[in-house]
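I have been asked to look over a protein record a colleague put together. What it holds is a sequence and that sequence's fold in token form. Please read both lines and tell me whether the tokens look consistent with the sequence. I do not need a full report, just your reasoning and any doubts. This is what I was given:
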Amino acid sequence: MTVTRRDDIVDELLSWTGVTVQDHRYGGIEFIFEGKEIGHIHGDYLIDLFLPKSKRDEVVANGFAQPHHMYPDSGWVSVYLMSDKDIIKAVELLHFKYDLMKNRNRS
């Protein structure tokens, strides 16, 4: 999968079963699955999403994401979309979160 632009990120997430978009309360748009937020995008440059603490710590430690730009000690992470690699990382993390949400709803 090669995702290279913001529109491609939106198109990719909307291709996942049950995902919709809506305006985010702090600007940008958020991706929703069964009434809950997967993550959100601010403009063309920043994706934020909430992860379980162990996954959050892992992705920050390996450089896949950074602590959230406003709440660095929370479970939120930020991915700045500076390169194609960053966009791919963001989509992979969003897909991880989507899969986690799908599996929780099946239990």
User: Anything to note?
Assistant: The chain has one domain: 6-106. Helices lie at 6-14, 53-61, 84-106. DSSP finds three helices and six strands in the chain.
